[in-house]
Amino acid sequence: MERIANALGTERGEASQVSLSSVAEKIAKNLGVRNEEVAILAVSTRWRHLYFLIPETLKKVGFIPLSSNSALAARTARDSRPEIENNFSAAKHVTVFEGLKKTTGEAAEPIQKMISAPILKDGQVIGVIQISRKGATAAGSGPDFTADDLGKILALCKPLGKLLHHIAGK
């Protein structure tokens, strides 16, 4: 994760050549989740919603209003506060994005656990990163997320802010 942060942290050069999908793949590998379990969303201040940048399959599916009371991503953006939800499937949340089939055509699995953290640029939330564990059951989805996992994600949020600003023009 430190190498990812260092590559993202460069003001010019490497950072402009780093793609969000390659960053997401490295994050997934480091945290022991699948690539499709890493989501990066950007804030549209004009339309007051979040839209998906990663995974690619959700880019054109829709958006999440910042006013949503049931979307963890919206709450993360509004409150600028990270959260670990190891009982996510029991919490009231938006499920429309979970119902989409995988790129392989298989039925999607429900999200059981999630880390959600704000992505900042100059002290303002410009996006949200979410790491999930999907599976038929909480136990079958993998281990609980820990404070250490959250720390790894938080270490990336500022450098991710620079990359997101560069990519999304925010």
Query: Could you state the order of secondary-structure elements as H and E?
Result: HHHEEEHEEEH
Strand element count: 6
Number of domains: 1
Low-confidence stretches: 11-15
Termini, distance in Å? 24 Å
Shape: globular
Instruction: Evaluate the radius of gyration.
Output: 15 Å
Report the oligomer.
Answer: single chain
CATH topology: Beta-Lactamase
What is the helix tally?
5
Q: Give the integer mean of the pLDDT values.
A: 87
- Helix proportion: 25-40%
Brief characterization of the structure:
This protein has five helices and six strands. The chain is an alpha+beta fold and 170 residues long. A six-stranded antiparallel beta sheet has the order 3-2-1-6-5-4, sandwiched between helices.
Describe this structure in words.
With 170 residues, the protein is an alpha+beta fold. It has one domain (2-168): Beta-Lactamase (2-Layer Sandwich). It has five helices and six strands. A six-stranded antiparallel beta sheet has the order 3-2-1-6-5-4, with helices on both faces. Helix 1 (2-9) packs parallel to helix 5 (147-168). The longest helix is centred in the last third of the chain and has 22 residues, at 147-168. The chain is globular and about 40 Å long. Mean pLDDT is 87; it is low at 11-15.
Strand-helix topology:
Blueprint: H1 2-9, H2 14-17, H3 20-31, E1 38-44, E2 49-54, E3 63-65, H4 72-79, E4 83-85, E5 111-121, E6 124-134, H5 147-168
Antiparallel strand pairs: 1-2, 1-6, 2-3, 4-5, 5-6
